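Lecture notes, unit on protein representations.

Consider one protein chain, 115 amino acids long.
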Amino acid sequence: MPTVRCPACGETEALAGERDGQALRVTCEACGTTWLRDPDRSCALCGSKDLRHRPVPLWEKARGEQRTPAGWLDAYDCYACGGRDVTSAEPAPGDPTELTGGMELRESWQRHREA
């Protein structure tokens, strides 16, 4: 699943990028559109930067009905709105209460990092 998509034509393959200060200037080679992309991940649904990394295995068919892992896809869920895969081109809304189950562990880790 592509993480960057041209806002004008939807192209995901013919894209070129170069650093522009802290941001990334992306150019669509298909239609010529240029835009700035913030390198910090944020939720495409609500704009929050409070995200949870969720690696998703990519599977390929092996022998018979067996499957074997072929790699990992980096997916991010949003703690603020509960959105799923919010840094991809196709984010999905979700229930924020599902992500708060480990909230006390997350808050203790943040306190540890700040100390």
